[in-house]
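Ligand: phenylalanine. Inputs:
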Amino acid sequence: MQGSTGSGARDGWGTHAGFLLAAIGSAVGLGNMWRFSYIATQGGGAVFVGAYVLLVAIIGIPLMTSEFVIGRLTQMSPARAMKNLGGSAWAPLGWLFALSAFGILSYYSVIAGWTMRYAVTAFGSGIPTDAGAFFGEVATGTDALLWHLLFMAITIVIVLGGIRNGIERASVILMPVLFALLLGLAIWAFTLHESVAAYGAYLEPDWSHLFNRKVLTDAAGQAFFSLGLGGGVMMTYASYVQSKRDLGVEATVVSACDFGVAFIAGLIVFPVVFTFGLSGQVSESSVGALFIALPAGFASMGAAGQVVGFSFFVMLFFAALTSAISLLEVPVAAFVDSLGWTRHKAALVIGAALVLAGAPSAYDTNVLGATDAIVGNFLLIVGGLLTSLFVGYKILPQADAELALGLSSPALRRGWAFLLRYVIPVVLIVLLYFLLAPTWDAVLVIVGRG
Ligand code: PHE
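Predicted complex:
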């Protein structure tokens, strides 16, 4: 196995397309299929989509560029890279990334286990018409735990293979299949008789949401999660890049693909939900659309529904897998680089710890939801805020020559620095305030009552 020790030659991407597909694979995940269209319906359709695109442009792309720059510049895992560039005071940020990635994967793998379970059932007997009852059976308990275990085992095996022979190889095979399934399903959804009305319901702008702070917090949280920012994933992947390409362009390509997939997934979800009159089940919860309403639609279509349902859940499973390997790679790279562990030991030990850490989420969806809110939303934004401060104030003044390689246009570089120093920190601090304020109010109420 290549690059299996911290001190030996480091593993790297075999081709540039391999890196791009892996980065897109990390970004494109359950968030695209599971959260985007659900939040869009809650946040005023096109108003949400517009806010989302704006946030991706002013926050997402500059932060992804920053992660790429740090990774490629140092060729080290985030924990070492931070220390190397910023001194010991910044090392904890690298470890925070590893912790966030670990925390996300713990529950992400449980949901990914559901997608495997659904794919297998769709292939065999077909998902029962009462998809709600089916979900109730498989979402928690021993069943959920076993599928979580199986999903983690597959993830661990890929990461054990290393960057070129594991992660890159998997991404190069899985991503094109995923794109083909996505397009095929979108075309099929277009043929459903309620499709046009459904597109309207998905995207019709509800302007009353324009100045709604929930739209901002939802769009920003979704942008961080979907682009995979603030958890060191893109930084880790870029640390295996050797080419000298413009990183601003790469970040734009990855972000655009991520948005494209989320948008198209909505064009699949809505026609199904509308044609089969299932919108009531969608508004109940965000997983409701994916695991209850859609399968109910597929189930009512007989044999054709079985094929479509199977394709749909295989697509979700591939999307989840290419994200999960990136999440596992962050703590693995940290242990290999900073503690001198072999890749083998790190992947097995951390993977086993993840199986245990995910167990509470497999037994209780409230734990899953709470972990998602704390790690998948809050901690990623904290990580993004610290990254913008780190690059804006610590790196930019020192490392202009290297940065010129990362972002070749001087005008764009100035714009990027401005966003990182003044715009992104302010927006993210306001956002964290919005996120914390209700919690704080709740604490005051509890204390007051207690
Ligand atoms: N972006 C992935 C998704 O949309 C999840 C993810 C989050 C991956 C954070 C990496 C880092 O599902």
